[in-house]
Amino acid sequence: MESLPITEWLQSELKQGRFPARMPAHRRVYEAIRRGIVSHHLNAGTRLPSTRRLADELRLSRNTLLAAFEQLHDEGYVVSQTGSGTRVANTFPEEFSERKNEKNASIPVPHSEPTTLSIRGKNAAGETEQPSYEVQPFAPGEDDFSAFPTQLWRRLLNRQWRAPQPAHLDYGHSGGFLPLRSAIANYLRMSRAVNLTVEQVLITSGTQQSIDLCARLLSDEGDIAWVENPCYWGARRILEVNGLKLHPVSVDAEGLSPSIEDFRCPPRLIYTTPSHQYPKGVVMSYGRRRLLLDYASTNGSWILEDDYDSEFRFEGHPLSSLQGMDQHDRVLYLGTFSKVMYPGIKLGYLVVPPNLTESFKRGLYQLQRPGQVVIQAALAEFIEEGHFASHIRRLRQIYGERRRLLQESLSSVTSVGANLPLAGSGLHLMVGLPPDCNDVRVTELAAEQGLRVYPLSCYGIGENREKGLIIGYAYAATERITPNGRKLAEVIQAALSY
Ligand SMILES: Cc1ncc(COP(=O)(O)O)c(C=O)c1O
Hints:
CATH topology of the largest domain: Aspartate Aminotransferase, domain 2
Number of strands: 14
Bound molecules: pyridoxal-5'-phosphate
Radius of gyration: 31 Å
Number of helices: 19
Structural class: alpha/beta
Helix content: 40-55%
Strand order of the largest sheet: 4-11-10-9-8-5-6-7
Shape: elongated
Distance between the termini: 84 Å
CATH superfamily of the largest domain: Type I PLP-dependent aspartate aminotransferase-like (Major domain)
Low-confidence stretches: 94-111
């Protein structure tokens, strides 16, 4: 292309005004030429007019043209050689240049979603039968998070932002903010009988990330993972996505209940919720805990103890952790702030055995690049100043009352063969239904009445799934629990009376 046509083309590009109003002149010239190169209007090797000449012909200052050319040069769109001026660079690999010259060459169009996703991607994001249900309030639209001390939290965050230390704005390099790790270590020692030093605590962005980290660092594709049956969908999904072969182990009234056949399949990982099985709600007995720990140490398995909601035990003392009974460093203990603070805080912790501490710190940094140090610092103060303990006490009262009201309003369902648990802990309640009942249908009937409950069978794996309803009450407004609970009891009674 001769210099005159380039100038004319550039003039018309600049006049067409397809630039934001406040864009400076040098940026417009740069952008017009860049677009010309990307769209192949200006081919590789094309010589551009000198900046002096363009400045004259476009009636722009020479500095404007120099700035535009400098930017194009820095980004590799043009090259300058003494004696031959400025030319459009060859920015595309050979095969693209050849394809470009083919008559019907077209830029490849991305595939539509189903064929684009990898097998791992389909497991993670595709539609599978695994439910991805959060246990939300059983009456949609009546969510109540008012128990969270918003003003206090704002004050603590503001305190951090008033004069943030540089390290608080950086990535979290060392496994998490040390005072938070230390506050968590103290809390776990006292209230969960976890056996640990602060070094063993890592801050993660929640349980989901903790499980992911354990799966990536402790297992390989094709390794076996025991999961509870029924099982928390989030854990199941992460383990599957990491290429583990899931081996479901049934759960009875004493928690995880491995059979002789199960023992013949020694796993690399064992995922379990001993303090409050999710979703059935049972507590693992002392005998089962001993059995599991002995089996894990004999077979070199790692136990992932997900202690997601044990703060909410409404009667009696909190239960001790499985980790606290472990003599052979086989347990990784997983906790979360999703339940005590609010789900969107996305902060949790992972307690790893002493010999894994350094590798996990490195793995966490290299795989996740953690951050949110300001929030971690505010949370450390929240715990250290005693707000965490008083907040838990308050939540126990509120959630305990909500649970009691729900149990009361559902009490009639036992007359038609449903099983209503009496003891209380956690944030959800499971009503057991007879084996021949279609629990999916019952949830549909409940939905027709504006109620959201989940079928237990969707958390099950394989044949002969247990039937029941999972009912989230913790975030449901207290005054709405009784009327909604009664409505649900009517749905259950009607469904079971046929
Ligand atoms: C069994 C179980 N573990 C852990 C969590 C919390 O996960 P996260 O910390 O990733 O929010 C949940 C949330 O619903 C859960 O049900």
